[in-house]
């Protein structure tokens, strides 16, 4: 979707484990921060797209979570649309909000992603991820994962499976397949969280701010080979919000050098021909570039979905930031790091691995980071001279691929 929506304000909470905070509290903080960052007031909001994926499972709040949040702030009398789309929940809310602005239906729209994943019963938390698949075809999913494991020679211990998300097994098979096909090393996998830890250390809102080394990553507790704990995104809570406005509203407000969403592509995967995988990445990314009139060489900053270390390697390649098979070597060489010699900095926020991954909030948190980078407000992690940024956020898993993918390009 080619859009003309403009970001007028953005805000987010710190990400982390906050057992004593409520969804209303977290979302309210992010919304108030976005309003404070904008020239607008609460009563200016004409519609709200509220993204949450896990409340029904974790807190029991179903059906009207968005209305509950906004009523607490004193906002009503507008359309409130609740959005759920796995880990792509928040980016989907943003996509739909941008569509309404671009269609001329609203001049001021709020998009929010908010989530609580922390629960004393870890099985309940993991059940959120287990539900991001076709639950009526669990035998088929189990058979698919078993086949993928067998193809790469994996023999995981089934007694440890309950202690991790099933997605970790999926990410592990992807990592091993890449290692076998392209010679990617475990040290290159470890270079991803090591790099992102250096970025996350500069982000006051990141869940983890300690710097870790490749050696420490490799020595950490194994989740499922070849992935250790720092190679897997953590469980946490948090919220992020942005306010989108039309060009007309921007002119009324006297906004100069606006940050515009030039493209937002939301796409579901489909059944591919035998032997082909991840065509949704190829198609969605190509469409986003085409609609924005840009390419990978134009990107200054990228926030991508590093749910695991192998994910960042693969998605760096999908986005065209390097050739296929080169992702591990590019990251290990420092080309995508702050201060590196590369064209594009990847995950200056610390990414999901260090900033955190409260799934319903992640997609808009990426947009907050890009927006602040493009407006020169990222402090010691600022990518100097940033004018173009891309956020890539996916979620769920159906028949061998991500269920939903959203790619958003912003330009100042």
UniProtKB/TrEMBL annotation:
<dbReference type="InterPro" id="IPR016039">
    <property type="entry name" value="Thiolase-like"/>
</dbReference>
<feature type="domain" description="Thiolase N-terminal">
    <location>
        <begin position="6"/>
        <end position="210"/>
    </location>
</feature>
<dbReference type="InterPro" id="IPR002155">
    <property type="entry name" value="Thiolase"/>
</dbReference>
<dbReference type="Pfam" id="PF00108">
    <property type="entry name" value="Thiolase_N"/>
</dbReference>
<dbReference type="Pfam" id="PF22691">
    <property type="entry name" value="Thiolase_C_1"/>
</dbReference>
<dbReference type="InterPro" id="IPR055140">
    <property type="entry name" value="Thiolase_C_2"/>
</dbReference>
<dbReference type="InterPro" id="IPR020616">
    <property type="entry name" value="Thiolase_N"/>
</dbReference>
<feature type="domain" description="Thiolase C-terminal">
    <location>
        <begin position="281"/>
        <end position="402"/>
    </location>
</feature>
<protein>
    <submittedName>
        <fullName>Thiolase family protein</fullName>
    </submittedName>
</protein>
């Amino acid at each position: 979707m080619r859009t003309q929506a403009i970001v007028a304000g953005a805000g987010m909470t710190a990400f982390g484990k906050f057992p004593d905070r409520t969804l209303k509290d977290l979302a309210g903080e992010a919304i108030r921060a976005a309003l404070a960052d904008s020239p607008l007031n609460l009563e200016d909001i004409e519609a709200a797209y509220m993204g949450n994926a896990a409340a029904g499972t974790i807190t029991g709040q179903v059906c009207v979570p968005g209305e509950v949040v906004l009523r607490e702030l004193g906002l009503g009398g507008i359309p409130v649309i609740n959005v759920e789309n796995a880990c792509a929940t928040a980016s989907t809310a943003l996509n739909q909000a941008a569509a309404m602005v671009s269609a001329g239906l609203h001049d001021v729209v709020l998009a929010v992603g908010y989530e609580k994943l922390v629960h004393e019963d870890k099985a309940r938390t993991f059940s959120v991820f287990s539900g991001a698949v076709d639950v009526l075809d669990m035998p088929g999913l189990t058979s698919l994962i078993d086949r993928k494991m067998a193809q790469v020679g994996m023999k995981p211990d089934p007694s440890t499976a309950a202690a991790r998300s099933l997605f970790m097994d999926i990410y592990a098979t992807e990592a091993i397949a890449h290692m076998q096909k392209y010679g990617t090393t475990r040290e290159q996998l470890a270079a991803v969280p090591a790099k992102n830890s250096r970025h996350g250390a500069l982000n006051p809102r990141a869940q983890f701010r300690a710097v870790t080394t490749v050696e420490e990553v490799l020595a950490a507790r194994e989740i499922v080979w070849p992935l250790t704990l720092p190679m897997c995104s953590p469980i946490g809570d948090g919220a992020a919000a942005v306010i989108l406005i039309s060009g007309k509203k921007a002119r009324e407000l006297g906004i100069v050098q606006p940050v515009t969403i030039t493209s937002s592509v939301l796409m579901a995967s489909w059944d591919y021909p035998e032997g082909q995988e991840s065509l949704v990445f190829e198609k969605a990314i190509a469409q986003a570039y085409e609609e924005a009139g840009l390419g990978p060489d134009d990107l200054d900053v990228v926030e991508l979905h590093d749910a695991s270390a192998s994910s960042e390697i693969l998605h760096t390649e999908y986005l065209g930031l390097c050739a296929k098979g080169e992702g591990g070597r590019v990251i290990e060489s420092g080309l995508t790091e702050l201060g590196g010699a590369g064209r594009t900095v990847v995950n200056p926020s610390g990414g999901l691995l260090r900033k955190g991954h409260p799934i319903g909030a992640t997609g808009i948190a990426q947009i907050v980071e890009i927006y602040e980078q493009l407006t020169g407000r990222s402090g010691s992690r600022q990518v100097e001279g940033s004018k173009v940024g891309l956020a890539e956020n996916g979620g769920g898993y159906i028949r061998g691929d991500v269920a939903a993918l959203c790619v958003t390009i912003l330009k100042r």
